[in-house]
Amino acid sequence: MIELENLSYTYGGGELLSDVSLRLQPGSFHFLTGPSGAGKTTILKLCYGALLPTTGRLSVFKQDIARLDRDQLALMRRRIGVVHQDCQFLDHMTLAENVALPLTVSGQIDTAQREDLSELLSWVGLGTRLDSHPPELSGGERQRAALARAVILSPDVVLADEPTGNVDWEMSQRLLRLLVELNKMGKTVLIATHDMSLIRAAKSQVQARVLRISQRQVQLAGADL
Ligand SMILES: Nc1ncnc2c1ncn2[C@@H]1O[C@H](COP(=O)(O)OP(=O)(O)OP(=O)(O)O)[C@@H](O)[C@H]1O
After folding, report:
1. Does this model's pTM top 0.90?
2. CA torsion 208→126→40→155, rounded to 10°?
């Protein structure tokens, strides 16, 4: 589904990622961990085509990302839902409008029916908050809303960048359950996190593999987490 082959990436300073190879199979559930600044967000950005590899090959849905034109890249991105680290909401818009944004941007305004949005927001426990504005939400509510927005186009892949970064244990478990539910629906899930307790909790719910960035490379971690 997503395959990195001998990929390196540099922002202009030193090389951040070097000779990285990894493969995310359809329907798999992975965590990506590593110290702050190791390159977790960078790998997610590469996976959804926001960055291109400096060298090496990245294929998404069996297509070499470097060969895609703008329209093909846009189509590819619609199949990937992203939960950004900072949620990235537009504060002047309501929660319903924010969550529907991927639909409106892709010209599917008519399909953004209020009942569908209500159903989606109910799934993340925000069914009564359609008309709230992002600044009125707690950290956990914002994270859940960001997850709802990430899946509104029914993506095949969900990438989540520290989705439990600013929430308490109970809320992180709730978010985890939602991500596991998405995986059980067949979606490929990749979660970047520092949170080892989240990883341990996931292991009783889903067959999760753990990738660790160390010394510019990505390795599959052992079962000793
Ligand atoms: N646009 C950019 N230009 C230059 N350097 C960047 C850019 N974005 C990230 N970096 C640098 O690349 C390194 C990796 O950043 P990245 O955000 O991928 O790490 P991370 O593992 O996700 O970190 P964290 O856990 O703190 O979120 C950091 O040293 C960061 O400062």
Report:
1. yes
2. 70
Residue-averaged pLDDT of the chain: 90
Side-chain-side CA neighbours of residue 94 (13 Å): 13
Flag the least confident range among 34-48, 108-122, 170-184: 108-122
- Cβ neighbours around 212 below 10 Å, total: 18
User: Which CATH number describes the domain made up of 2-79+155-220?
Assistant: 3.40.50.300
The secondary structure of residue 96, as a DSSP letter, is: H
List strand residue ranges (DSSP E) for 11-148, in order: 15-24, 29-33, 55-60, 63-64, 80-83
The answer, yes or no, to whether any atom of ligand 1 lies below 6 A from the CB of 37, is yes
| Alpha carbon of 11 to ligand 1 centroid (Å) | 9
Domain segments of the chain as ranges? 2-79+155-220, 94-154
Q: What is the ipTM of this complex?
A: 0.97
